[in-house]
Write a structure and sequence with these properties.
The longest helix has 15 residues. By secondary structure, this protein is α/β, with parallel strands linked by helices. Helix 1 packs parallel to helix 2 and helix 3 runs parallel beside helix 5. The chain has a single domain, classed as TIM Barrel (Alpha-Beta Barrel), CATH 3.20.20. It has a 12-stranded mixed sheet. Helix 2 links the parallel strand 2 and strand 3. The chain binds S-adenosylmethionine and iron/sulfur cluster. S-adenosylmethionine binds next to strand 3, strand 5 and helix 9. Iron/sulfur cluster binds next to helix 9.
Length: 323
């Protein structure tokens, strides 16, 4: 029996760490167009609140000892903007966690892929919502996909595992579902489509852009014969094959929730921990790290916050909590 486990057998086995809440993109689903007026439970980070690399490593080590973490995902904001990313990856390796992953918009991946691999990073999820330049520019409110595509190629050449994530929105990028699938299969990688989540400025909004899992499947089935593959427990995505040699996943928080076996714990760049994305109340664990009993109790309380069945959205901004 694990020390920290709930009545549904859920544990914290994967930690996502948001290294900073700044980003070079301003994706429409992540950043409000009136950012300063956006309702947010987390105010923009004041400089003194941002954890330094040693503090990140100390907190990760303390939690890892109690939860027996299997993997860590570094995210943000944009994690490739975090100055000490390479030393942090090296420190996490020294803690004894070998499975270190990263989620990035890929803009700076080309120039960092080799160092990331050498430091011990295992795999990268690149968020790429479009292959078409105009579509991508409108969503990211930045440049087209060219830099991310170059970054993906370099990362693969360096021996990193790569997956694509694409948030699909009605009227914005459903036209990109097939191009993304065909691009991914041409590179020998998987694409995962994400249903839009009610986070941050989208919380409590009726969102007409929501494009469901079924609609994504229908779009692909118009061109390819699809067949569902077996789901691995605690995986956020369910996978399908599409014709020969193409595999895609869908992360359908709304249509097919996966709360029942969710094993993720999250930490933001101030050191606040979150047991569930649906609960916007974080807990600062730094005061307890030298008392394993108190720390265990705090982690158990965070585990109790996990939804039993369904994600409800929250005012937490993805840019703060890291997806
Ligand atoms: N900047 C990095 C990136 O974009 O990959 C890492 C941080 S970003 C917050 C992490 C993931 O959250 C991205 O794949 C992004 O598409 C996803 N995301 C952000 N807001 C979302 C929303 N409202 N619904 C679904 N996914 C969202
Ligand atoms: Fe930045 Fe990632 Fe949010 Fe886009 S999804 S604005 S790249 S943090």
């Amino acid at each position: 029996m694990y020390q920290i486990e709930d009545h549904m057998g859920r544990r914290f086995e994967k930690l996502r760490v948001s290294l900073l809440n700044t980003c070079n993109f301003a994706c429409t689903y992540c950043v409000s167009s009136e950012t300063s007026a956006a309702p947010s439970v987390i105010a923009p980070i004041h400089h003194e609140e941002q954890l330094d690399t040693n503090k990140f490593a100390t907190l990760i080590e303390a939690v890892s000892k109690l939860c027996r973490l299997k993997s860590i995902r570094l995210t943000g904001g944009e994690p490739l903007l975090y100055m000490n990313l390479i030393p942090l990856i090296e420190k996490i390796k020294l803690i004894g966690i070998d499975d270190i992953r990263l989620t990035t918009n890929g803009y700076y991946l080309k120039q960092t892929a080799r160092q990331l691999k050498e430091a011990g990073l295992r795999s990268i999820n690149v968020s790429l919502d479009a292959i078409d330049t105009d579509v991508m520019k409108k969503i990211a409110r930045h440049k087209g996909p060219k830099k991310a595509l170059e970054g993906i190629e370099t990362a693969l050449n360096e021996g990193l595992k790569v997956k694509l994530n694409a948030v699909i929105m009605r009227g914005q990028n459903e036209s990109q579902i097939i191009p993304l699938l065909e691009y991914a299969s041409s590179m020998g990688i998987k694409v995962r489509y994400l249903e839009l989540m009610k986070m941050g400025h989208l919380y409590e909004q009726q969102n007409e852009a929501f494009f469901s899992e079924q609609e994504i499947l229908n779009t692909i089935a118009e061109k390819y014969e699809i067949s569902q593959l077996i789901r691995t427990s605690s995986e956020t995505a369910r996978y399908w094959s599409a014709g020969d040699n193409r595999v895609f996943g869908i992360i359908a928080n709304e249509s097919t929730p996966f709360c029942h076996d969710c094993n993720r714990l999250r930490m933001d760049s101030r050191g606040y921990f979150f047991g569930c994305l649906s609960n916007a109340n974080g807990e600062k664990l730094a005061p307890y790290i030298n008392d394993s009993e108190l720390l265990s109790n705090k982690l158990r309380q965070l585990l109790l916050l996990k939804q039993p069945v369904k994600f409800h959205g929250s005012a937490l901004s993805m840019r703060n909590i890291g997806g």
